[in-house]
């Protein structure tokens, strides 16, 4: 009786077929799952007299193996028929699916352009750490301890006494370069800087600067002016005017703020330049002799100039971006406008 039933199931398994996923599932339900006919054979074991259990067990195990082997075979059959139909479906005349290509971030593009301009006039590139000690960020740059100038740059301290902080400017790289190299030095140091400022359209706690340093014999203020004139015209166009405004930085003497003619109104006055026709792009000056000496450079023999500019500032002026936060929000609608620069 059992034998007969088993033979029928065996022949059903042998002739089973499947050509798609649904039929495969139906087969699985019928011959593999717990509730399948094969499952039932196992459940019936309970009712088989003890002396027959061994023989019965062998029989139903064979059925189980048969059912599983068939299942594997059917899976392979369905897969290969699907692949075949996929191959047949390829239509070479269809247009390609839209591959979306990213774009260079406007800050990256601006940094690259700045580097290009200065590399052509003999500046190399240098980098320094973003976590900086007091010496490189302040003391070597002639910021005396407790000097109010330190407070102009609201600092994120990591440790106090000795102080470790997130660098507040890339001027720290000037110190590192001068400590390790002998003049002539012509170097450009772009990088990220940090200040404890509330985030708004005009300020951020993380931003980027690019520092320039030129130290050699007989370097004068006219070299500083000519270098920055050249930069402004290359970066913003031939019509751009540059203005130097007397200022104060502890590490330069004399010091000057660098302004360029407003890119939006061409100098006539608008709300970007607050009616003045000028916008500031950075600070500059002749390297203070104390700074040269702090870094082991003979200030009687060598002079130098330095400048530091905000990369966001330059990008905002160049691309007429009104809100600093756009650079870090990663809004694709903003970023994809810079595709042409890829
Ligand atoms: N480090 C200054 C700042 O972040 C900018 C600066 C001014 C850099 C004058 C210089 C410089 O190299 O000479 O405000």
Automatic annotation (TrEMBL):
<protein>
    <recommendedName>
        <fullName>Phenylalanine--tRNA ligase alpha subunit</fullName>
        <ecNumber>6.1.1.20</ecNumber>
    </recommendedName>
</protein>
<dbReference type="InterPro" id="IPR045864">
    <property type="entry name" value="aa-tRNA-synth_II/BPL/LPL"/>
</dbReference>
<keyword id="KW-0460">Magnesium</keyword>
<dbReference type="InterPro" id="IPR002319">
    <property type="entry name" value="Phenylalanyl-tRNA_Synthase"/>
</dbReference>
<dbReference type="InterPro" id="IPR006195">
    <property type="entry name" value="aa-tRNA-synth_II"/>
</dbReference>
<dbReference type="InterPro" id="IPR022911">
    <property type="entry name" value="Phe_tRNA_ligase_alpha1_bac"/>
</dbReference>
<feature type="domain" description="Aminoacyl-transfer RNA synthetases class-II family profile">
    <location>
        <begin position="119"/>
        <end position="317"/>
    </location>
</feature>
<dbReference type="InterPro" id="IPR010978">
    <property type="entry name" value="tRNA-bd_arm"/>
</dbReference>
<keyword id="KW-0436">Ligase</keyword>
<keyword id="KW-0648">Protein biosynthesis</keyword>
<keyword id="KW-0030">Aminoacyl-tRNA synthetase</keyword>
<feature type="binding site">
    <location>
        <position position="253"/>
    </location>
    <ligand>
        <name>Mg(2+)</name>
    </ligand>
</feature>
<dbReference type="Pfam" id="PF01409">
    <property type="entry name" value="tRNA-synt_2d"/>
</dbReference>
<keyword id="KW-0963">Cytoplasm</keyword>
<keyword id="KW-0067">ATP-binding</keyword>
<dbReference type="Pfam" id="PF02912">
    <property type="entry name" value="Phe_tRNA-synt_N"/>
</dbReference>
<comment type="similarity">
    <text>Belongs to the class-II aminoacyl-tRNA synthetase family. Phe-tRNA synthetase alpha subunit type 1 subfamily.</text>
</comment>
<keyword id="KW-0547">Nucleotide-binding</keyword>
<dbReference type="InterPro" id="IPR004529">
    <property type="entry name" value="Phe-tRNA-synth_IIc_asu"/>
</dbReference>
<keyword id="KW-0479">Metal-binding</keyword>
<dbReference type="InterPro" id="IPR004188">
    <property type="entry name" value="Phe-tRNA_ligase_II_N"/>
</dbReference>
<dbReference type="GO" id="GO:0004826">
    <property type="term" value="F:phenylalanine-tRNA ligase activity"/>
</dbReference>
<comment type="subunit">
    <text>Tetramer of two alpha and two beta subunits.</text>
</comment>
């Amino acid at each position: 009786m059992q034998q007969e039933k088993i033979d029928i199931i065996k022949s059903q398994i042998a002739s089973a077929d499947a050509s798609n996923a649904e039929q495969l599932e139906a087969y699985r339900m019928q011959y593999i799952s717990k509730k399948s006919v094969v499952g039932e054979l196992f459940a019936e074991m309970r009712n088989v007299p003890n002396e027959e259990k061994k023989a019965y067990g062998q029989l139903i195990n064979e059925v189980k193996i048969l059912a599983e082997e068939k299942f594997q075979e059917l899976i392979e059959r369905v897969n290969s028929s699907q692949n075949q139909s996929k191959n047949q479906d390829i239509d070479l005349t269809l247009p390609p699916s839209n591959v979306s290509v990213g774009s260079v971030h406007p800050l990256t593009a601006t940094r690259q352009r700045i580097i290009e301009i200065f590399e052509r006039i003999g500046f190399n590139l240098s980098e320094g750490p973003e976590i900086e000690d007091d010496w490189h960020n302040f003391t070597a740059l002639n910021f005396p301890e407790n000097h109010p100038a330190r407070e102009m740059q609201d600092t994120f301290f990591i440790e106090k006494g000795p102080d470790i902080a997130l660098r507040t400017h890339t001027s720290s790289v000037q110190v590192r370069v001068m400590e390790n190299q002998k003049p002539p030095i012509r170097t450009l140091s772009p990088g990220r800087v940090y200040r404890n400022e509330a985030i708004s359209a005009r300020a951020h706690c993380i931003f980027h600067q690019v520092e320039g340093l030129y130290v050699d014999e007989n370097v004068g203020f006219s070299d500083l002016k000519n270098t920055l004139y050249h930069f402004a015209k290359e970066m913003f166009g031939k019509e751009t005017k540059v203005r130097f405004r007397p200022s104060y930085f502890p590490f330069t003497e004399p010091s000057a703020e660098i302004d360029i003619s407003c890119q939006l109104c061409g100098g006539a006055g608008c709300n970007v330049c607050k009616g003045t026709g000028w916008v500031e792009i950075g600070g500059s000056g002749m390297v203070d002799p104390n700074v040269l000496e702090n870094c082991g450079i003979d200030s009687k023999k060598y002079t130098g100039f330095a400048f530091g500019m905000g990369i966001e500032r330059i990008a905002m002026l160049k691309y007429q971006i009104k809100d600093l936060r756009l650079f870090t929000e990663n809004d694709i609608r903003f970023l994809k406008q810079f595709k042409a620069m890829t």
